[in-house]
Design goal:
Elements (H helix, E strand, L loop, with lengths): L1 H16 L10 H18 L9 H22 L7 H37 L1
Helix pairs in contact: 1-2, 1-4, 2-3, 3-4
Amino acid sequence: YVVFMVGIYVVARIIAYTARRFDGEADLIQALKLTAYSSTPVWILGVFNLVPDLRYVGFLGFVYTVYLFYLGLPVLMRSSLEKRVSYLFAAGLFFFLLLLVISFVGNFFFVLSIPQVIEGV
């Protein structure tokens, strides 16, 4: 969860940095509110991903997260309604790339820890 908290902060920084390109206000606090609040359904419903038959419930959390983000962009970041969809796609791309980096780094450290686990056996 610590990695995801850092991820939310990094995405909020990027959203605040790119806000002016989408006719919005570059406010880090508002961007943090947007990313933290809109990602809450993914965190809560992500528990259902542990049960293979209930993964679709976790996907509903993702859909609701995108919906909350879509609604919150013009309110919190003061972006124009015309550029809301492109801002949503850009932020989604940033978040997806960040997840790839986090996954890569996590897998890298997991692979590095395997010899230590084997030696302890």
